[in-house]
Amino acid sequence: MRCLKKIKISPIQIITLGFAFIILIGAILLSLPIASKDFHSIPFVNALFTSTSATCVTGLVVYDTYTQFSLFGQLVIICLIQVGGLGFMMITTLFLMMTRRKIGLSERSVLAESVNAFQIGGVVRLTKRITICTAILESVGALLLAIRFCPQMGLVTGIYYAIFHSISAFCNAGFDLMGRFDPYISLIPYQSDILINFTIMALIVMGGLGFIVWNDVMERKLCYRRYRLHTKIVLLSTVFLIIGGAVLFYIMEKDNTLAAMKPIDKLVTSLFQSISPRTAGFNSVDMGGLTEGGTFLLMLLMIIGASPGSTGGGIKTTTIMVILMATVAYIRNTNDINIFHRRLESNALKRAVCCVTIYIILSIIGIFLLIIGQKLPIKDVIFETLSAISTVGLSTGITRELDTLSRLVIILLMYSGRVGSLTLITAVLVRTKPGFRNPEEKVIIG
Questions:
Q1: Number of domains within the chain
Q2: What string of DSSP letters covers 44-65?
Q3: What InterPro entries has UniProt attached to this entry (predicted)?
């Protein structure tokens, strides 16, 4: 950190480079012969793809995790998921605290940027709280999953599977070891299992709410009236998306993928497929068998994604809410953007529009590059592109068919989706210093 401070690198650039470094280390480890069950090295591009998918908590794979990777390789993947979910800077800060080293202002600044904290003050205390909560939630999740896995797989294997899938679910990664039943099957074998489904769903939701929301709820308990505006927006939009998404998925798929299920299984599956597409990547139905309406719904949920400062991706729930409320304000002919009796800061709309614009531009570029690279169905290409840039991990199956160039495109999309499209652009481009303002002139819009 001290050497980075000397060359005057910004907190955003540190985060961007830090994730790239972790991905590179992971790719080197996964390309080693010991990482594969057959003790043969996999191509470095495929190792880089897997490392990026794990670190960026996406879940897109070119190999089935259970079938291809040895215990060493699986442990590398789950470590990358944990580091990627919490953020490498948070892991670094915890190491500094454990070694009793002083955490300076520059480190606190990077840490605040990493967890999307409102201010630098109290960020170290927030880090400790996040770590403790993460350990508790993942442990409880693992305990619940072990209740089902241990009788089926034995004590040691069951505990290992429970820990792996608890971390993967909480970090919204979507990696699984269900290849022991059938490669690339995800959680379809547990489609009717209430315990597995609700445990995974709860972990996904908790990981996707965001660290700032956790902290706010812990400090203000269940007093909703006293929550920060950010927390209120996140909770409201999350509940709406879960319920609305489940209802729409049921309507779209009741005569298709849900047709042969019992009523309770239809409800659970609809809820699961409403929650998972918002960056988790697990699936309990065949993605390739969805109707056009079901596929389109999942695409919309992938685009929206989770909330800021969470383990998930997408353009974020708060971004969508700011744009919607700005639209309402314009229709009502009011100057301010108001929600929950609060006025949003003037820069909020500009940042939200920038996030959406950059997201759309990168998605379009990714779609075009994949179409040019290979002759694939346009629906599958769009689905895969959105899944990558939103760090979701759901796939119609074409990821394994992509050539080297197309896989590099997906790698870049996953990377930009995890560090944040706006963050990545900001880190790369040099900001111009404010100068004189140009003359104002009107442009006709709409």
A1: 1
A2: HHHHHHHHHHHHTT----SS-H
A3: Cat_transpt, TrkH
